[in-house]
C-alpha cells in the first residue's frame, strides 16, 4: 500500500494494489513517514473501505478532527454489531456512530451528561440492539477510561437500528419518535380495556412488529396506492365494536387519517391482543 495522505501518526489514507482508497490504522503507523512511501502490511491493525462515496468523504473528515482511539473502538463496535445482529449495516454507521460517541466522550469530560428519555422503551422493543449497546458502552469505558452510563447503550442502539439496510427511517430522531409512539399506542390499548398486556406473548410481539411496519407505511404511502376494504371493514366494526373504538383513539393520537385497510388491520390486531 502507498500512502496518499497522513491524518495523524496512527491513521493514513492509502492505495492498495487494486488502486482502491483505504483508510489504514495502526499504532504509530505514519511515524516518520511521508506521502508516497510504502506502508508495510504488518504495521496495519485495521482497514476501512467504505463503498459509499459520501460516507467515505465524511469519514476522512472525521479522521482529521477525532482521536484515532475513538475511531478504532467504534470500528470494533460496528463489526461486533454486524456479527451479533446478523444484519447488514449502512456504511454511514462508521460516520454517525463515531461522531456521536466522540462527542459524548467530550461532553462527559466536561461534566455534561445527556439523559435518554426512551431508555426503557428501547430496552423493551429493541433488546438485541440494546444488548449490543451495553457491550459497546462497556468496551468504551474499559478502553478509554471513562464511565458512560447505561443510557448511552440506548443511544448506540438507536444508531444501529437506523443503520440497518432496508430501514425506511431517515434518522435517529425518527426511530426515537417511533419508539415513543409504540409505547403510547400500547398504553391506549391497555387503558381502553383496563387490562395488563402479556408482554411475553406471541400476540404482543406480533402487534409491536405490526406497528413498526405500520409506521413505515404511513411514512411512505401514496394516495393512489390505498386499497378499499369497505365491506370487510363494516363487518369487523360491527363484530368488534370495542376494538373499533380503541382504533379510533389511536387514529386520533396519530392525528392521521388512516386508510380503511389500515383501520381494518389495527382493529384485528387489537382484538387479538386483548382477547
From TrEMBL:
PROSITE patterns: PRD_2. Residues 65-170, 173-275 form the PRD domain. It comes from Clostridium thermobutyricum. Keywords: Repeat. The keyword Mitochondrion does not apply. The lineage of its organism: Bacteria, Bacillati, Bacillota, Clostridia, Eubacteriales. Pfam families: CAT_RBD, PRD. GO terms for biological process: regulation of DNA-templated transcription. It comes from the Bacteria. GO terms for molecular function: RNA binding. SUPFAM superfamilies: PTS-regulatory domain, PRD, SacY-like RNA-binding domain. This is PRD domain-containing protein.
Amino acid at each position: 500500500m502507498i500512502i496518499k495522505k497522513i491524518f495523524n501518526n496512527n491513521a493514513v489514507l492509502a492505495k492498495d494494489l487494486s488502486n482502491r482508497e483505504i483508510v489504514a490504522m495502526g499504532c504509530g503507523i505514519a511515524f516518520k513517514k511521508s506521502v508516497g512511501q510504502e506502508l508495510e502490511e504488518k504495521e496495519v491493525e485495521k482497514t476501512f473501505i467504505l463503498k459509499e462515496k459520501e460516507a467515505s468523504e465524511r469519514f476522512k473528515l472525521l479522521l482529521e478532527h477525532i482521536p484515532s482511539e475513538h475511531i478504532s473502538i467504534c470500528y470494533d463496535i460496528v463489526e461486533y454489531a454486524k456479527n451479533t445482529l446478523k444484519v447488514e449495516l449502512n456504511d454511514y454507521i462508521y460516520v454517525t456512530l463515531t461522531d456521536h460517541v466522540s462527542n459524548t466522550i467530550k461532553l462527559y469530560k466536561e461534566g455534561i451528561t445527556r439523559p435518554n428519555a426512551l431508555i426503557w422503551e428501547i430496552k423493551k422493543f429493541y433488546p438485541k440492539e440494546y444488548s449490543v449497546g451495553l457491550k459497546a458502552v462497556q468496551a468504551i469505558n474499559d478502553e478509554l477510561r471513562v464511565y458512560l452510563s447505561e443510557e448511552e447503550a440506548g443511544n448506540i442502539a438507536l444508531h444501529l437500528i437506523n443503520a440497518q439496510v432496508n430501514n425506511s427511517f431517515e434518522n435517529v430522531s425518527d426511530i426515537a419518535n417511533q419508539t415513543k409512539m409504540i409505547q403510547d399506542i400500547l398504553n391506549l390499548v391497555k387503558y381502553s380495556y383496563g387490562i395488563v398486556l402479556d408482554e411475553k406473548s406471541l400476540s404482543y410481539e406480533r402487534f409491536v412488529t405490526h406497528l413498526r411496519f405500520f409506521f413505515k407505511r404511513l411514512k411512505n404511502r401514496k394516495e393512489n396506492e390505498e386499497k378499499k376494504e369497505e365491506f370487510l371493514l363494516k363487518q369487523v366494526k360491527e363484530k368488534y365494536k370495542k376494538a373499533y373504538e380503541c382504533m379510533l383513539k389511536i387514529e386520533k393520537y396519530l392525528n392521521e387519517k388512516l386508510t380503511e385497510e389500515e383501520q381494518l388491520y389495527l382493529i384485528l390486531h387489537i382484538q387479538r391482543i386483548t382477547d
